[in-house]
Design brief:
By secondary structure, the protein is an alpha+beta fold. The chain has 14 helices and 23 strands. α12 packs across α13. It is elongated and about 85 Å long.
């Protein structure tokens, strides 16, 4: 799965809805304090909601326990009357959906019962979106998820809603005209029912709708759907389907939906099979996208602007977690693992060292050396080998002098760029976000950072908050050249988004890039024009 867009409404400095297109390499530009880090924070907030159910968090763990002050501080203008809405668009890519397709067919065949065959939903999802709306309850003095909406293959498909007291949670809208909610052999079924080929959706009930209506204690309504503004779909609306959720409208994750329909018990096997068809279908369209998104967000790397320079007394954490990436400590922890016992560590050290040392890459003049104290001192086998002598350290071999140096003996720049390189060389994270990668880094290294990003764009997506013109210039050059270090590069691989402050909140604008590696328009607000003013 890969995130392709983030849309924010009433979140921190964002008022009216603004969308940030996420490409394999996305750069966020704009004045200081305009809200660039808000985009990164929105992902951490969604992770907190999905993973821990915290709609009113005081801190965000994935951002290194960053204090955020709760819902009042997160909502635009601190206006508790406004709901926060965050939408995340995604492509499935190599991620396989289908965890909630059970053995209904096998069970029905074994018992000799007919069953309704639905499309292969997991295999049909190419892209989608989820939107979470968080509101404040004055009556109960808490934030809760009021609505959860989901789209599949560009079409709205469902909405889950929660009452303010959280006692009434249900599927409030279900677009049964969506192609993946149309039963298999629907045309043949229409003929069997005696319908003509000219009948339009909304003029009849599909077999799937009939099953839901038969199991649902809530009566069907033929009134118009109350769907998000600007979305058009059919006029038919099923009755609300009661659903067990938590913290509002988020279904229980990691399991089939607990949908309150008749047929849950096996007393009536025919109804039970119908129930399983509905349960599995709703699980695949409502739960699985959230499962996949949460898994992706848990693997996301958030690298902050102030990164660690480990001293001689630094003790590596053998099990770094997501929050350890914020100050870059996780990168040093991963490089400190024993390469003699861990092939992944060996590969990571090798790749990172190549980026630092090779002339066609960063060419920083250093190789990485991972040694224990006993190895460094050439003590060989020692009786204390299980103690402090086996603690491993990361050194930098100066390629000119052959001397090994610690991180604290180098200039600040190497320690600041290292976490970015380690994240890029790692096989694990799917999304890497970095705040101000250019801090304390020479312009020559800044342009090379662009190559670090481009050459690993097939494994990771990058969301970069920056002011660096040098990174932009290298990206444009690689687009002109069509290839970077054996990797093809096109304008679609890069999204450059400019954020401007207004009295009504941040406004975003994607700066389009031509196939020749140039901008189609001028930078807004004269950004980067300072150089021309100083020269001329």
């Amino acid at each position: 799965m890969r995130i392709t867009g983030v849309s924010l409404t009433n979140f921190r400095s964002f008022g009216e809805t603004q969308t940030i297109d996420i490409a394999p390499v996305t750069l966020l530009f704009g004045p200081n304090s305009v809200g660039k880090s808000t985009v990164l924070m929105s992902l951490a907030y969604i992770q907190e909601i999905l993973g821990n159910g915290h709609c009113d968090p005081k801190r965000l763990f994935s951002l290194g326990d960053k204090p955020v002050g709760g819902f009042r501080s997160l909502v635009f203008s601190q206006d508790l009357e406004r709901p926060i809405r965050i939408r995340i668009d995604y492509e499935t890519g190599q991620t396989v959906f289908g965890d909630y397709a059970s053995e209904v067919e096998e069970l029905a065949s074994h018992l000799g019962h007919p069953f309704l065959l639905m499309p292969d939903i997991g295999g049909s999802i190419n892209n989608g979106a989820i939107e979470i709306e968080v509101a404040w309850s004055k009556q109960f003095a808490r934030a809760y998820v009021r609505h959860y909406r989901t789209w599949i293959n560009g079409k709205f498909i469902a909405q889950v809603s929660a009452s303010e007291d959280l006692k009434n949670t249900r599927v409030s809208e279900l677009n049964t005209d969506h192609p993946i909610l149309q039963p298999e052999a629907n045309e043949e079924w229409l003929e069997e029912q005696g319908y003509s080929h000219t009948i339009m959706p909304g003029e009849y009930l599909t077999a799937f709708e009939e099953i839901i209506d038969g199991l649902n204690p809530n009566a069907m309504s033929l009134g118009p759907m109350k769907i998000p503004e600007g979305i058009t779909t059919h006029s038919r609306r099923l009755g609300d389907i009661a659903l067990t959720c938590r913290h509002g409208a988020i279904p229980l994750l990691g399991r089939h939906v607990d949908v309150r329909l008749a047929g849950k018990d096996i007393d009536d096997m025919e109804k039970h099979i119908d129930y399983l068809v509905v349960r599995d279908t709703l699980s695949q369209i409502l739960v699985e996208p959230l499962d996949r998104l949460l898994a992706l967000l848990k693997e996301t790397v958030f690298i902050g602007p102030l990164r660690l320079i480990p001293g001689s007394d630094y003790t590596p954490n053998p099990y770094p977690d997501q929050s350890d990436w914020v100050d870059g400590a996780a990168a040093w922890d991963l490089l400190s693992r024993n390469p003699n016992r861990n092939k992944d560590a060996q590969a990571l050290i090798k790749k990172t060292s190549e980026w630092l040392s090779q002339s066609d890459k960063l060419d920083a003049g250093y190789e990485i050396v991972n040694k224990s104290i006993s190895e460094y001192a050439d003590l060989g086998s020692h009786s204390d080998s299980l103690g402090f002598l086996e603690q491993r350290h990361v050194y930098f071999k100066d390629l000119k002098t052959g001397i090994n140096l610690s991180a604290s003996q180098l200039g600040t720049g190497i320690s600041q760029v290292l976490p970015i390189v380690v994240a890029a060389c790692s096989e694990k994270p799917g999304l890497v976000s970095v705040e101000q990668p250019e801090l304390h880094i020479h312009p020559r290294l800044q342009v090379e950072i662009a190559d670090v990003l481009l050459t690993s764009k097939e494994k990771h997506s990058y969301l970069i908050e920056t002011h660096s013109e040098h990174i932009v210039l290298r990206l444009l050059r690689r687009i002109r050249e069509k290839e970077s270090l054996g990797v093809s590069v096109s304008p679609d691989d890069v999204s450059i988004v400019y954020l401007s402050p207004t009295v009504d909140g941040v406004v975003t604008k994607r700066i389009n890039i031509t196939g020749d590696g140039d901008f189609e328009e001028e930078w807004p607000d004269g950004f980067f024009d300072e150089r021309d003013e100083e020269l001329f």
